[in-house]
Amino acid sequence: MVRRWVRPVAALLTVAAVGATCASTDGLGQARWDSPGLVGGGGWPFVSTPISTLDARDASYIPGSSAVRLADGRVLVIPHGASNPVKISENDPRVASAVRGDRGWLEDGLIPGLTADHRDMASRALLDLRMLTAPSGASTASWYGMWNYVWPRDAAFHAAAFAATGHLVEARRILGFLSRVQGADGRWASRFRPDGSPATDGRPVQLDEIGWTLWAAWFVARYDPAATAYLPMVEKGAEWIASHLGPDGLPPASSDYFERSVSTEQEPRRPTLGVSGPLLLGLRAAADLSRASHPDKAARFHTAATTLSSAITREYGRYGYPRSPLPGGNMDASVTFLAPPFAPADPAVTAAIANAADRMTVSNGGLLPGENWGGNRTQAWTPEVALFALSAVSGGRADEAVSRLDWLSGHRTSLGVLAEKVNDKGRTASVAPLGWTAATVLLALSAQSTPLPVPPA
Questions:
Q1: Distance from C-alpha of 163 to C-alpha of 171, rounded to nearest angstrom
Q2: DSSP character for 165?
Q3: How many angstroms separate the CA atoms of 332 and 358, rounded?
Q4: Closest by alpha carbon to 409, among 431, 430, 389?
């Protein structure tokens, strides 16, 4: 995820030290922090643990499960009721029990995808999201260290993916967690520990997370009427947005999914599109969700959404929808937040999406987080490729959608897991699985068969 490049120097040195330590012990079978996937047991409450690179050699998941068939024919699995993996014969009844548990859960919902390869990617993504989501609803970005936190933004996508594929219990659990950790003023901390406590590392609040969480509650409610129970959370968040639009109609400047300091932006005094777009989405979602029970609040949220929408068109649209509202502003993936399935189609936005993709493409065929990215400019980021795939499906650009989904499927780990990044050699890099990518891919694959709902404007 984009956030990983902008930690304090001390944190970066910690990652380097941990990576070096893991690399030095990998020959003993210990899992590296960039493990190619997780192994689980299919039970409830389920647990998981990373797979070592040594065990992953010539290994594969038993189809439809999180049990791993090793090169020597044994199976790596966490038996029901246990917390540590064991290597046992495939004929051991504990293997059949684990596989049956995973497959039964998958069959409770849908596995989207128009091709066998895409359905395989979807199955793996669903099982990985399940292993990243605790019974409490704490759904973490990934499993390792500084990724092992709940970002409301990521969790919102996880909930939406579960809803779109019919796994409504998990979707509601995530909304429940987000509701419990919401601040009294309607905002969320930038990230939370799985126990629900906010991470206190000095990161500023990321305002885009309000919009994503409100959208997720609305989205889940479209599939599960029981999710309307989270209306108080939605209205509290929408009230904060509506109360904090400035004279220009835009929200305050803040960090967004880039997770970098506002001072580093091209126009630090004004919000990025990565903030403005999700907050508009959140207001529209709140207005629609409140309409039946609180029409007065719905009208207020609708008015605020109209104000913000006009400001986005005026301030960003005249420059081609760049990240910051100024001439020559850099393009980034947040332009997709103004298009289906997050907003009604707009030809000007569609053109801007194509322009952004051209400017962000790297040699391996993937995408950078944004134009003039400050990190490694030869390394693609899978969340951005997935967002453009989702935009293409929802915008009716079928060929582009298939091309991007094929790219994602073809650049998974050796175990078929979606990692955070892909280097210039086409090899996966950083953590795997990455929940945001898995969730966005599931939404894109689902949209190929049934269009996703769009909050009314």
A1: 6
A2: T
A3: 10
A4: 389
Tokens of 309: 């929408």
Encode 16-74 in three state secondary structure: HHHHHHHHHHHHHCCCCCCCCCEEECCCCCCCEEECCHHHHCCCEECCCCCCEECCCCC
- Other Cβ atoms closer than 10 A to 435: 31
Nearest to 170 by CA among 204, 131, 144, 214: 131
Q: Rounded to whole angstroms, how far apart are CA atoms 212 and 195?
A: 21
Report the alpha-carbon distance of residue 377 to residue 387 in Å, rounded: 19
Contacts of 246 (CB under 8 A, 6+ apart): 252
In terms of C-beta density within 10 A (0-12 exposed, 13-18 middle, 19 or more buried), how is residue 363 classed?
exposed
Residue owning tokens 């078929």: 416
Contact by Cβ (8 Å): 215, 157:
no
Per-residue pLDDT band for 30 (boundaries 50, 70, 90) equals low
- Residue 294's identity, in one-letter code, is H
CA atoms within 13 A on the CB side of 75: 22
pTM of the entire predicted model: 0.94
Q: Tokens 């970098």 belong to which residue?
A: 260
Residues 6+ apart with CB under 8 A from 87: 70, 74, 75, 76
- CA dist 239 and 227 (Å) reads 19
Contact between residue 166 and residue 39 where contact means Cβ atoms under 8 Å apart: no
Mean of all residue pLDDT scores within the chain: 92
Checking DSSP bridges between strand 68-69 and strand 60-61, what pairing results, if any? antiparallel
**Is 258 within 8 Å of 369 (Cβ atoms)?**
yes
Angstrom distance (rounded) from CA 133 to CA 151: 12
Span 399-449, pLDDT tens digits? 999 999 999 999 999 999 999 999 999 999 999 999 999 999 999 999 999
| pLDDT tens string 278-295 | 999 999 999 999 999 999
Q: Can you point out the beta strands (E) in 51-160?
A: 60-61, 68-69, 75-77, 86-88
- How many CB atoms lie under 10 A from the CB of residue 36? 25
Residues found in the chain: 457
Beta bridge partners of 249: none
**Exposure of 88 by Cβ count < 10 A (0-12 exposed, 13-18 middle, 19+ buried)?**
middle
